[in-house]
């Protein structure tokens, strides 16, 4: 009794959810969380890069004790200083660094949106797969009801000798096979539920009724979010080339230092108590055994590699988009075909059922008609669910926000 009570209470701890609620849960999973951290890190890095080129203020102090002293060397000296420094030019590294960090932030932003869309697409696939499997189970249960009714009828006929035992045995065999089919479907539903659980981070109970809004518009090519992220990443690689070239160009730094002194000479001498110095410094590395050139060449080769990766991804995405369009059109055609087949199978079943009960056709023909009827119903439900999933695939390939299209 205690065990059954626990099983009865267990569903209370599972979250019931339609598709939109499942996607809300999925946005909180660890993969999305990791991408959010990466975006925040990129933003912090951008801020740090810009801040590093702002004027810097440095404070310094020292105290010196000398063992020997004279008119030129004090016994003790104390110095304090404040230095304000600003890099006027550093070979274009500053501008390239700013552009690079901006591109990296945009890339991380698109990557986050891409991961969210990827996970949304996965959730949608398993959501409609669950509904299709559930529809198959419901049809199989109805089939079981029909088989049980026929078993009951045939057992009565067998008791009065109106039929042979082998006719009843075929029905019993179909009942046992249907039980196995139900166990298989239950196992599939459990597997899908487990997958949704790790995608959403919650134990959920799938609710029916969600649909996806998609307007069939002419789009020549896809602009997926992962491609946008790669494009920004390519811009970052391009900026890296300019950063690598910068050491071969002059660097100009403006520096203003205010110092205050306290000298302890053994005799009275005139000495400075404070000083303000302005310095314009220039450095230009003219030879480094080709180190800078090699770094620039390496950055250029990385840029070419990233560019090739982007081109390949675009070609692949273009093919995927065409495939998605074709799959969507095919799924629409499947619905019409499934409707026609269901209508025909229902008419055939009713006719065969009457003939079977009158002894005109054998039970093999009846079982085939029964299976065909319920299989046709399952195919229609599966076709309807497939269309919804194909809508999501098209939205993904077009770079649209899938979650925003859920109703």
Q: What class, by secondary structure content?
A: alpha+beta
- β-strand amount: 5-15%
Give helix % range.
55-70%
| Biggest pleated sheet | 4 strands, antiparallel
Q: What's the average pLDDT?
A: 86
Widest β-sheet, arrangement of strands:
2-3-5-6
What's the tally of helices?
A: 8
List keywords for this structure.
407 residues, alpha+beta, 4-stranded antiparallel sheet, two-stranded parallel ribbon, 8 helices, 6 strands, 65% helix, disordered N terminus
Gist of the model:
By secondary structure, this protein is an alpha+beta fold. The protein has eight helices and six strands, in the order H-E-H-H-E-E-H-H-E-H-E-E-H-H.
Account of the protein in words:
The protein is α+β, with helices and mostly antiparallel strands and about 400 residues long. The protein is about 65% helix and about 15% strand. The chain has eight helices and six strands. A four-stranded antiparallel beta sheet has the order 2-3-5-6, with no helix packed on it. Helix 4 (about 95-160) packs antiparallel against helix 6 (about 225-245), helix 4 runs antiparallel to helix 8 (about 365-395) and helix 6 runs antiparallel to helix 7 (about 290-355). The radius of gyration is 38 Å and the shape is elongated. The two termini are about 40 Å apart. About 25% of the residues are buried. Residues about 1-15 have low confidence and may be disordered.
């Amino acid at each position: 009794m205690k065990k059954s009570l626990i099983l009865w209470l267990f569903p209370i701890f599972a979250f019931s959810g339609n598709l939109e609620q499942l996607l809300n849960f999925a946005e909180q999973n660890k993969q999305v969380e990791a991408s959010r951290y990466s975006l925040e890190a990129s933003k912090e890095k951008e801020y740090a890069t810009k801040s590093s080129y702002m004027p810097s203020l440095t404070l310094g102090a020292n105290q010196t004790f000398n063992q020997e002293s004279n008119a030129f060397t004090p016994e003790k000296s104390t110095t304090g200083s404040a230095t304000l420094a600003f890099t006027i030019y550093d070979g274009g590294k500053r501008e390239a660094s700013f552009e690079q960090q901006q591109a990296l932030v945009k890339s991380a932003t698109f990557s986050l949106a891409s991961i969210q869309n990827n996970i949304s697409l996965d959730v949608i696939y398993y959501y409609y797969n669950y509904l299709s499997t559930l529809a198959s189970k419901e049809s199989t249960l109805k089939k079981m009801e029909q088989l049980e009714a026929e078993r009951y009828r045939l057992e009565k006929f067998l008791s009065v000798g109106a039929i042979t035992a082998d006719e009843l045995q075929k029905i019993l065999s179909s009942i046992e096979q249907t039980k196995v089919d139900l166990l298989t479907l239950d196992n599939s539903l459990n597997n899908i539920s487990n997958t949704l659980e790790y995608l959403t981070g919650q134990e959920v109970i799938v609710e029916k009724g969600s649909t996806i809004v998609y307007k069939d518009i002419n789009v020549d090519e896809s602009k997926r979010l992962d491609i946008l992220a790669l494009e920004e990443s390519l811009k970052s690689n391009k900026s890296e080339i300019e950063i690598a070239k910068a050491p071969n160009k002059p660097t100009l730094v403006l520096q203003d230092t205010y110092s205050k002194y306290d000298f302890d000479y053994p005799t009275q001498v005139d000495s400075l108590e404070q000083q303000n110095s302005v310095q314009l410094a220039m450095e230009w590395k003219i030879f480094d055994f080709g180190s800078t050139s090699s770094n620039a060449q390496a950055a250029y080769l990385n840029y070419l590699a990233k560019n090739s990766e982007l081109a390949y991804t675009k070609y692949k995405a273009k093919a995927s988009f065409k495939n998605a369009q074709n799959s969507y059109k095919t799924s629409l055609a499947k619905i019409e075909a499934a409707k026609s087949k269901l209508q025909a199978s229902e008419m055939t079943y009713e006719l065969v059922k009457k003939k079977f009960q009158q002894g005109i056709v054998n039970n093999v023909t009846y079982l085939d008609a029964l299976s065909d009827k319920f299989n046709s119903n399952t195919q229609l439900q599966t076709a309807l669910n497939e269309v919804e999933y194909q809508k999501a695939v098209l939205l993904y390939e077009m770079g649209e926000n899938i979650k925003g299209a859920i109703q």
